[in-house]
Design a protein that fits this description.
With 406 residues, this protein is α/β, with parallel strands linked by helices. The protein has one domain (56-278, 288-395): TIM Barrel (Alpha-Beta Barrel), CATH 3.20.20. The chain contains 13 helices and 15 strands. The chain has helices at 17-30, 34-46, 98-110, 126-134, 168-182, 201-213, 227-236, 257-264, 309-325, 330-341, 354-361, 370-381, 392-395; strands at residues 63-65, 68-70, 75-76, 80-81, 87-89, 95-97, 115-117, 143-148, 150-152, 159-164, 187-192, 217-223, 239-245, 267-271, 345-347. Strands 3-7-8-11-12-13-14-15 form an 8-stranded parallel β-sheet, with helices on one face. The chain has a 3-stranded antiparallel β-sheet with strand order 4-5-6. Strands 1-2 form a two-stranded antiparallel ribbon. Helix 3 (98-110) crosses helix 4 (126-134) and helix 9 (309-325) crosses helix 10. The radius of gyration is 20 Å and the shape is globular. This is Aldo/keto reductase. It holds the Pfam family Aldo_ket_red. Residues 94-379 form the NADP-dependent oxidoreductase domain. Keywords: Oxidoreductase.
């Protein structure tokens, strides 16, 4: 029986057509099948940890992701077309235009950023196209990271089945299309966006190994994988990167994923390192998030629901307090905290604002004494965040184990 059903009726059918279109666009940006997110929209419409090792992190030190070396803070490029012509939006109510996006990337590289992250699912294709254009003439200055793994037609961007697809032939087609969009001859880190439960990871890793042999890919990574899938993949083609959500708002990787990375020598890239703007001070106790004209993902995220957000503000208040103590902004403090957890962790905050991008890079200059880090970790651990980190239909794709090899 197929694990990628396409229901005749989905949870977003109750939405007016414009809002339904925004939901589908948001699904594409997140790399999520529209039918998965639609189940979350119904609830949105109706509703309208342990501590890490203690160390002093050297300010500004370069970071290793497997055999690669990068600046401590990267740039996440996760954009989609907005509702208005020519507008490019992210998942959190921010927008600009394509020329501004290109300038942002080039400014980041000028200021020292060496890790640029994107994916075919972001748009689909739009983010890769922007990154490819922006990196013309400066491609060799960066580590370029992109992702595959959803059932998206490599030519048209149409979603074929609404699910995941990591079949070897599909991966080969996707990579060839990515190379054209990115205007490059190689992808530095190719990441499986989400584990395909129907395809043995040995087949995926073997295909990436072939692409590495052909010179099209340099390194391999996985995003939000199951622990045994990591071990199985690493045995076929050593992994340079695991990319999971990690921040003071979500410390889930600390229990098992970070120790596994340390054991196997795998670098760790943090998506949503600022908790979808929460840790940067962009969310208030009474904040509400739009479903239209461009849907804000936080509108369907349980930890941003009106009934739990006031309680969760205790963490935002803590970050503000420590930011003042360290003479930093809340965003810088939050990113510096991540950098202090392990020397092979690299956050990839996204933004549409060049000033915020520059601000984020300042986190690399902030360090903690062992005692400061002990105090901050203890204070963060004492705050219980209410609400799940992701809508159920999205969360179900994290921690997945690939099909066994037969």
């Amino acid at each position: 029986m197929s694990t990628h059903p396409t229901p005749a009726r989905t949870g977003d059918d109750h939405l007016p057509p414009p809002q339904r279109r925004q939901l589908l666009r948001a699904a594409a940006t997140l790399g999520v099948a529209p039918w998965l997110l639609s189940a979350c929209a119904t609830a949105a419409g109706d509703a309208a940890a342990g501590t890490a090792p203690h160390r002093t992190q050297a300010a500004g030190a370069r970071r290793r992701l497997g055999p690669l070396e990068v600046f401590p803070v990267g740039l996440g490029c996760q954009w989609r077309p907005g509702a208005a012509p020519g507008v490019v939006v992210d998942s959190y109510s921010s927008r600009f235009d394509r020329p501004a996006a290109i300038r942002l990337i080039r400014q980041a590289v000028d200021q020292g950023v060496t890790l640029i992250d994107t994916a075919e699912a972001y748009g689909p294709f739009l983010s890769e196209e922007i990154v490819g254009e922006a990196l013309q003439g400066i491609r060799d200055q960066v580590v370029l990271e992109t992702k595959f793994g959803f059932d998206i037609d490599p030519g048209t961007g149409a979603r074929q089945s609404g699910g995941r697809n990591s079949r070897p032939e599909h991966i080969r087609q996707v990579v060839d299309a990515q190379l054209r969009r990115l205007r490059t001859d190689r992808i530095d880190v190719l990441i499986q966006h989400r584990v395909d439960p129907d395809v043995p990871i040995e087949d995926v890793a073997g295909t990436v190994r072939e692409l590495i042999g052909a010179g099209k890919v340099r390194q391999f990574g996985l995003s939000e994988p199951g622990l045994q899938t990591v071990r199985r993949a690493h045995a076929v083609q050593p992994l340079a990167v695991i990319q999971n959500e990690y921040s003071m708002l979500w410390r889930g990787p600390e229990a098992q994923v970070l120790p596994l990375c340390e054991e196997l020598g795998i670098g760790f890239v943090c998506w949503s390192p600022l908790g979808q703007g929460f840790l940067a001070g962009g969310v208030k106790a009474d904040s509400r998030f739009a479903m239209a004209p461009d849907m804000d993902f936080r509108a369907i995220s349980p930890r941003f629901a009106p009934e739990v957000l006031p309680a969760n503000m205790a963490l935002a208040d803590l970050v503000q307090t420590w930011a003042r103590r360290k003479n930093a902004t809340p965003a810088q403090l939050s990113l510096a905290w991540l950098l202090a957890q392990r020397p092979w962790i690299v956050p990839i905050p996204g933004t549409t604002n060049a000033a915020h991008m520059t601000e984020n890079l300042g986190a690399a200059a902030i360090s903690f004494t062992a005692e400061e880090l002990r105090q901050l970790n203890a204070a963060v651990a004492a705050i219980r965040i209410q609400g799940d980190r992701l809508p159920p239909a999205v969360a179900v794709m994290s921690g997945v184990e690939a099909a066994p090899k037969r």
